[in-house]
């Protein structure tokens, strides 16, 4: 009987030790992050970080997709984002979200002067001397008139990374008229997203100005997205000339401008919406 009790006692002790060993997490496994709890927790954390990153990306509805066929340096300013091209010494595009509130303000352009962008290496950036006696205006892409709401925004609109050589007549009339119309739309709809930039010749010799050989565009594009209500988009191409160009003549679909420039606009939109609105070009939808 005594031997039986010893036998059962030994079995119980063995079972207890085994249960403790099975329940214990190997310290080496913990150090290596190989436990199932750590693994799934890590995956959850990674998924959470990825989701946050997606949210950050898709809120920039005005920003085009990255470019791979030309130099591109993304520069974020107070009021706009510019994709700078160190070869052309001009932006590839400039994009901004224009709200109704941003169309008002007390900061005036008369107090500002054009200046070099020192974030760009000397020799790879335009200077004021490049434009001197060139017969081209220093043409804003994101206009000063969209930046009266903030002193820093107004000042940064005069950086040469926001400027292209622009025909004086176009700058003074048609391009200015389109800028004013965009501010009217921002007031009407509450907010719009805008991208604009230069169009360069696909063939032939590229005209330049100044010691830094700043490229002269043959045309300018502007695409506008309204996300209020039923989303819609519209585009324009203006030749870099002083001849009169009506808005109806300049009217283009976003798809047409994408084909011309090689830039993918509004990639943050869902595919169905993007495909629908980028194929349309109806100015009456905006009146």
Give a quick precis of the structure.
The protein has 287 residues and is an alpha+beta fold. It is built from ten helices and eleven strands.
- Helical proportion? 25-40%
Spatial separation of the terminal alpha carbons: 103 Å
For the biggest sheet, the summary is: 7 strands, antiparallel
Strand order of the largest sheet: 1-2-3-6-9-10-11
Q: How would you describe the oligomerization state of the chains in this entry?
A: single chain
Number of contiguous helices: 10
- Report the average pLDDT across residues: 85
SSE topology string: HHHEEEHEHEHHEEEEEHEHH
* Shape estimate: globular
Q: Could you tell me the number of beta strands? A: 11
Beta-strand content: 15-25%
Radius of gyration: 29 Å
Low-confidence stretches: 1-9, 14-58
Category by helix and strand content: alpha+beta
Model description:
The chain is an alpha+beta fold and about 290 residues long. About 35% of the residues lie in helices and about 20% in strands. The protein has helices at about 1-25, 25-30, 35-60, 130, 150-155, 170, 175-190, 245-250, 255-260, 270-280; strands at about 75, 80-85, 90-100, 135-140, 165, 190-200, 210, 215, 220-225, 230-240, 250. The strands form 3 sheets. The protein has a 7-stranded antiparallel sheet. β1 (about 75) and β2 form a beta hairpin. The longest helix has 23 residues, at about 35-60. It is globular and about 50 Å long. The model is unreliable at about 1-10 and about 15-60 (pLDDT under 50).
């Amino acid at each position: 009987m005594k031997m039986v009790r010893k036998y059962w006692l030994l079995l119980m002790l063995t079972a207890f030790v085994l249960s403790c060993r099975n329940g214990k997490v190997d310290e080496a496994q913990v150090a290596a992050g190989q436990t199932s709890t750590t693994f799934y927790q890590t995956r959850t954390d990674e998924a959470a970080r990825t989701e946050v990153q997606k949210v950050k990306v898709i809120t920039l509805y005005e920003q085009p997709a990255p470019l791979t066929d030309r130099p591109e340096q993304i520069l974020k300013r107070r009021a706009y984002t510019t994709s700078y091209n160190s070869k052309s010494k001009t932006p590839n595009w400039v994009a901004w979200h224009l709200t109704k509130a941003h169309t008002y303000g007390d900061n005036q352009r008369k107090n500002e002067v054009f200046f070099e962008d020192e974030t760009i290496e000397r020799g790879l950036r335009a200077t004021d001397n490049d434009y001197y006696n060139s017969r081209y205006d220093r043409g804003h892409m994101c206009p000063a008139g969209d930046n009266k709401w903030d002193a820093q925004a107004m000042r940064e609109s005069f950086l040469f990374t926001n400027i292209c050589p622009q025909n004086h007549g176009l700058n003074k009339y048609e391009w200015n008229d389109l800028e004013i119309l965009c501010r009217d739309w921002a007031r009407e709809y509450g907010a719009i997203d805008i991208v604009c930039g230069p169009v360069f010749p696909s063939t032939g010799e590229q005209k330049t100005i100044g010691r830094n050989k700043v490229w002269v565009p043959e045309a300018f594009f502007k695409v506008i997205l309204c996300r209020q209500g039923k989303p819609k988009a519209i585009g324009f191409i203006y030749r870099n000339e002083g001849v009169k160009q009506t808005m109806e003549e300049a009217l283009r679909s976003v798809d047409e401008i994408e084909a011309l420039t090689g830039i993918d606009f509004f990639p943050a939109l869902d595919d169905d919406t993007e495909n629908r609105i980028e194929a349309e070009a109806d100015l009456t939808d905006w009146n």
